[in-house]
Design goal:
Largest sheet: 10 strands, antiparallel
Shape: elongated
Distance between the termini: 101 Å
Structural class: alpha+beta
Helix content: 25-40%
Number of helices: 3
Number of domains: 1
Strand content: 25-35%
Radius of gyration: 34 Å
């Protein structure tokens, strides 16, 4: 914006002066450009923040999977078969709020209180239950109780009670079992059928040679994206039993 006018000088003569400014159109154009620049910066920063948050969440799930897999591998590698303890694994059944998907005896007993805990064999159970705080997600619990011979008194707890959280944010958990011939099974049960013959009892009452484990974590609930982790654990006791057949 330009303004012109007359102004009297020191000697009384009139002088022409000019004052420069901005028009309304120029101000509006500058405001629009500034708004566009701010919007572009905001979008760029929000996108970067989303990437950082997604990377952090993914790293957190990798850590959860590592801890859970290491614990499962230690438990299964030390699995044994006794007259008082069985190896029972079932596939996940829909509709149940809490179910034991795998139960076995292992030497990998966790002692949290050295004053009260006792080393030795333990009956370990993996339980799957719905997460009450996150709809559609699952919790994997681990129960660890000292194995007590039949006929002796226990503390009154049932197998699978008072399980500790092994991992959360799960979408699914799948265990698979491999026999001596390498065939894959979705379940394994060493409990003997009293009506079965001698050969059938001998075949059933043994550990699998290996167990596969698949943990699927929910990465993004809105986009329904998942992360899947798989491992295969060889059971030394099961391998020895298979080689002795």
């Amino acid at each position: 914006m330009k303004m012109r006018g007359l102004r009297s000088g020191p000697d009384g003569n009139s002088l022409l002066y000019c004052c420069h400014g901005f028009t309304l159109l120029e101000i509006m154009l500058a405001t629009v450009i500034l708004a566009l620049v701010v919007s572009m910066i905001t979008l760029s920063l929000s996108g970067s923040l989303r990437v950082v948050e997604a990377t952090r969440d993914q790293g957190d799930l990798y850590y959860r999977a590592q801890v859970a897999m290491e614990r499962i591998c230690r438990d299964l590698e030390s699995a044994i078969l006794t007259d008082d303890g069985e190896f029972v694994g079932h596939p996940v059944e829909g509709g149940e709020t809490k179910q034991a998907i795998l139960r076995f005896v292992s030497m990998a007993h966790q002692i949290f209180d050295p004053k009260k805990g006792h080393p030795g064999m333990a009956e370990i159970s993996y339980l799957l239950t719905q997460d009450p705080e996150n709809n559609g997600q699952l919790l994997l619990l681990r129960s660890d109780q000292v194995a007590v011979p039949r006929g002796k008194k226990t503390d009154g707890r049932k197998v699978g009670e008072n399980g500790f959280l092994l991992t959360d944010h799960l979408r699914s958990v799948v265990f698979t079992y491999f026999d001596a011939q390498g065939e894959e099974h979705d379940s394994w049960d060493t409990r003997l059928d009293p009506d079965a013959g001698a050969d059938e009892k001998k075949r059933k009452h043994r550990l699998p040679t290996a167990v596969g484990c698949t943990l699927e974590f929910r990465l993004d609930t809105d986009r329904k994206t998942d992360l899947r982790f798989q491992t295969k654990v060889v059971l030394p006791t099961g391998m020895i039993s298979a080689s002795g057949q």
